[in-house]
Design goal:
With 153 residues, the chain is of the alpha+beta class. Helix content is 26%, strand content 31%. The protein has 3 helices and 8 strands. The chain has a 5-stranded antiparallel beta sheet, with no helix packed on it. Helix 1 runs antiparallel to helix 2.
């Protein structure tokens, strides 16, 4: 199998290689909340408390809360950053994934990749929407039903 654990510094540095990068922090949603709070505060003065609350919450999340990459999608492979050693990552080639599914838990979610050699790679996620589109684009039809919860990913 070509899939393996490698050092992050050995990944290709070309920025055109990566199609999608999934982070922990939902920056797009936070920016929309920030601008919505600013518009509400400026246009509707009687809703200023709500608008300022939205601005403060968004700025707190954007500035103070930590962010890290969960995974990167490319045309040839998927990079998972779920190693205990932060300098390592798992490189999984698309043709070596037998099936995948998404599992929901109370504190976090995870995507589970079943590889053709029988091994399993697990990555913590916080939203199925961040990965489902890319997984279906690269490996269509390999999403299997999650029997633990009776839901499709």
């Amino acid at each position: 199998m070509k899939s393996q654990v490698i050092r992050c510094r050995n990944l290709p540095k070309d920025p055109k290689v990566y199609e999608k990068i999934v982070n922990v922090k939902p920056i797009g949603i936070l920016l929309v909340t920030l601008f919505s709070g600013a518009i509400i505060t400026l246009l509707k003065p009687y809703l200023a408390v709500m608008g300022i609350s939205m601005i403060v919450l968004s700025l707190f999340c954007l500035i103070v809360m930590p962010d890290k990459e969960l995974c990167r999608f490319t045309k040839e492979y998927l990079v998972l950053y779920n190693r205990h050693n932060k300098e390592e990552c798992t490189l999984v080639y698309w043709d070596e994934i037998a099936a995948w599914h998404y599992e929901w838990y109370k504190t976090y979610d995870q995507v589970v990749l079943d590889l053709i050699d029988g091994s399993t790679e697990v990555q913590e996620m916080y939203s199925i929407y961040a990965i489902k589109k890319n997984m279906d684009m690269h490996i269509p039809g390999k999403n299997k039903k999650n029997y633990r919860l009776g839901k499709d990913a």
